[in-house]
Amino acid sequence: MALQLLFPTPLLHEKAEGEIFDAIQKEILDCVNKIKEDNDYESLSDVSDMVQKQRSTTQDNNVIKKYNLFNFWNFMKGYVEKYIDTCEWAYLDKRPAEIDMTDSWINVQKTKTQYAHIHPYHQLSGVYYHTIKDNMGAIRFQNPNPYMSFMQFPEGPLSPNSLSLQPEEGTLIIFPSWLQHGTLRNISNEERISLSFNINISQHI
Predict the structure, then answer these.
(1) Number of other residues whose CB lies within 10 A of the CB of residue 91
(2) What's 27's DSSP letter?
(3) β-strand 44-45 against 97-109: which pairing, if any?
(4) pLDDT digits (tens, 9 = 90+) for 26-77
(5) Percent of the chain with pLDDT over 90
(6) 127 closest CA partner among 139, 116, 115
(7) Phi and psi for 61 in degrees, rounded to 5?
(8) 33, 44, 184, 190: which one has the fewest Cβ atoms less than 10 Å from its Cβ?
(9) Under 8 Å CB-to-CB from 177, ≥6 apart: which residues?
(10) Going by C-beta distance under 8 Å and a sequence separation of 6 or more, which residues neighbour residue 16?
């Protein structure tokens, strides 16, 4: 019997290792320390202001550019390009893609949950985990098909209501911005630190 999976959701899951891991970890830690030192709250996101971020169509904040996170940008950009090539988006018509980093911010969360949300007005979103342990909360993705639960379709391995991924330090996840996602509660007394970003893709002329 041939069982075909229709309308898959492309999600990239990679991990930085070796020298590039060390470089990115130091780069982000220096960034976090600088943000705290300067009280740069616009670059530091918390669960409480996520709703406000969703309401805004434009955001000026971009910590990757503002703090020149060169190592992370190159690492992330390479995987965004692989994501785009694998998806073979028709509108690009085999032309080089222009990657527009619309905004990025640091998340520092302690004993909190990030409720399910999407990132409107963008095409791709992603997160890199700088500081994460098993008890600091996994990332959870919701099934984007609302008719599954509405029609009471049975849940199973090929039709889950949600999927959780437990990242490690150095994990990079890239996914469609329309995919609803959130985090489980950080039950530790330590800060979970990650870097989130939004991207739009256009044709390079």
Answers:
(1) 8
(2) H
(3) parallel
(4) 999 999 999 888 887 677 664 334 434 443 333 458 999 999 999 999 999 9
(5) 60
(6) 139
(7) -80, 130
(8) 33
(9) 118, 119, 120, 122, 123, 124, 125, 198
(10) 24, 75, 128, 170, 172
